[in-house]
Amino acid sequence: MGTTDAWKKMREVCVLGVGLHKFGRFPEKDIGDLGREAILAAFEDAGVEAKDIQAGFGGRVFNGNSTAIRLISEVFQSGILIDNVEKACATSSTAVRLATWAIGAGLYDVCLCVGVEKMERGLVGGVAPGMESRASYGQLMGLGIMPAEYALRARRHMHEFGSTREMFAQVAVKSHKNGALNPYAQYQTPVTLEEVLNARMISDPLTLYQCSPSTDGATAVVLCAREVASKYRGKPITIAGWASGTPAYATTGVGGDVQEGYIDRIANEAYERAGVGPEDVRVAQVHDAFSSGEIFAIEDLRFAPKGEGGRFVWEGKADINGKVAVNTDGGLESRGHPQGATGIAMLAEIVRQLRGEAGLRQVPGNPKVGLQHNVGVGGCNIFIYKK
Amino acid sequence: MADAVTKKRLPIRRGRFVVPDEPGKEPYLTASKCKNCGKVFCPPRHICLNCGKQMMEIIPLSGKGKIYSYTEVHQQLPGALVKTPYMIVIVSMPEGCQVHGVMTENYKDIKVDADVEVYFEKMMEDKDGNELIADKYRLVKKGKK
User: Fold this and answer.
1) How confident is the model at residue A85 (pLDDT cuts 50, 70, 90)?
2) Phi-psi region of B96 (alpha: psi -120 to 50; beta: other; left: phi over 0)
3) Which of B50, B80, B90 sits opposite A254 (nearest CB)?
4) Which residue has the higher pLDDT, A158 or A129?
5) Is A337 among the residues known to form the active site?
6) Cα distances (angstroms) measured from residue B88 to each of A146, B71, B74
7) Which three-class secondary structure string do you get for chain A?
8) d(CA A54, CA A117)
9) How much is the ipTM here?
């Protein structure tokens, strides 16, 4: 949507190293403890030291002020530029995009991005006791609930295309199967289709296992200009294309994260910049905050035609051995969704897959192109990575 | 406490609907309609998202529409006055906008394209004893006009 082709003049940017703190619930740790472990792991993976980092970007969603400097200062305090970022569930992928721009434009050679979250249990978006006078109409009336958004578009999908409850539930079965292969995942136990369908209803047709949990966790990534990558030990993966945007005005539709037509436009832009199409993508990490979201993404990213996303998952085409391996690390539902950390977790999984380092969940056949789709209330980031 | 004479029905939050001052008159949903391009927005807004003009007029909505989509919610939102289970619905209004609202009773037979109508219900009282009301939706029974 930009008015110039300035992105064509940008330097090639790559991911040099990634690091995660395991996702889960860690009441005894604060965000500094989580972030420090992720940053040190990313440094080790990239083969860099604190002195190599020229700028930092990052943040969290809840109580998010000054998070990036707080996390990075756990490891070093060298006086570099550090920007705090917030874009709801797409917070840390936004940090990565800002670093990509900064490196691509030639301002810096090596940047660090971080994301973290510590979350309360239950639905997000409510009001605390005693604060009702400040509540919005939507909060008082129980509207604006995230699983409901995904359920409302799921219901339309069932109406328009004949998708079934079982298809949405199968997303959670696959997610938990993959999560069981990921030592960093919050949930590492497979579930059956019956268990998913019979679990506690959250927002019909979505049951408990089809909803991302509240999670504590942290993620970090070191990015650099391709031309300096050989100075470091890390195995670089190229950021081949990126695009970002927000929902455009429409007269009908559920709106928000799941507005019809919204992701399609941004995906097309990312594909064009990367010089690839959906048929080239072998591994994708998509925003399955709720199971139906994976099905919408599979269609919006053109892995399957409109209306066929449910069948695509049901027939195993999104499995690790499928046509496009989707959410190989368990996705938001099973790996967990510490909102500020999720974007870099998606990136990290694609990097490991493209390096061939994903262990038991490795996508076979030497995948060369991976796609990340990270949606927050503040907008969507899509990245395409190449080996 | 206000006495019976001065007790009022007031919107729980201003903007979506109007409670007429005249006794006996029913509340009604409102929208803004762009005098330039004709697009309709509910709740009302100042600037048209379609053409960008600032030429809105407030119009009343009939309050009768069709279900675009729905979901029954079973997880309680902290602080919400509506208690689970309840239905979140998107209603397509004949005036050309969609309204997000709740159904709390007798929605078992709901389906996409079902006819629904608005009604207004007391949600709470303010410190002066005024009734704070909100819009809710219900299925229109077959045969009923």
Assistant:
1) very high
2) left
3) B90
4) A158
5) yes
6) 12, 5, 11
7) CCCCCHHHHCCCEEEEEEEEEEEECCCCCCHHHHHHHHHHHHHHHHCCCHHHCCEEEEECCCCCCCHHHHHHHCCCCCCCEEEECCECECHHHHHHHHHHHHHHCCCCCEEEEEEEECCCCCCCCCCCCCCHHHCCHHHHCCCCCHHHHHHHHHHHHHHHHCCCHHHHHHHHHHHHHHHCCCCCCCCCCCCCHHHHHHCCEEECCEEHHHECCCCEEEEEEEEEEHHHHHHCCCCCEEEEEEEEECCCCCCCCCCHHHCCCHHHHHHHHHHHHHCCCHHHCCEEECCCCEHHHHHHHHHHCCCCCCCCHHHHHHCCCCCCCCCCEECCCCHHHHCCCCHHHHHHHHHHHHHHHHHCCCHHHCCCCCCCEEEEEEEECCEEEEEEEEC
8) 24
9) 0.94
Contact (CB, 8 A) for A282 and A363: yes
Contact call for B50 and A249, based on CB within 8 A: yes
Our CA angle for B48, B51, B56, nearest 5°, is 35
**Closest Cα to residue A90, out of A374, A382, A363, A298?**
A374
| Torsion angle (degrees, nearest 10) of CA A184, A304, A272, A373 | -30
How far apart are the C-alpha atoms of A144 and A254, rounded to whole Å? 11
Q: Which residues pair with B41 in a beta bridge?
A: B32
Kindly report the average pLDDT of chain A as a whole number. 96
> What average pLDDT score do residues A76-92 get?
97
Distance to chain A for B5, nearest Cα, Å:
25
The pLDDT tens digits for A5-43 are 888 899 999 999 999 999 999 999 999 999 999 999 999
Q: Binning pLDDT at 50, 70 and 90, where does residue A134 land?
A: confident
Which of B12, B71, B78 has its CB closest to that of A127?
A: B78
- Chain B stretch 12-31, residues whose beta carbon is closer than 8 A to a beta carbon of chain A: 12-13, 15-16
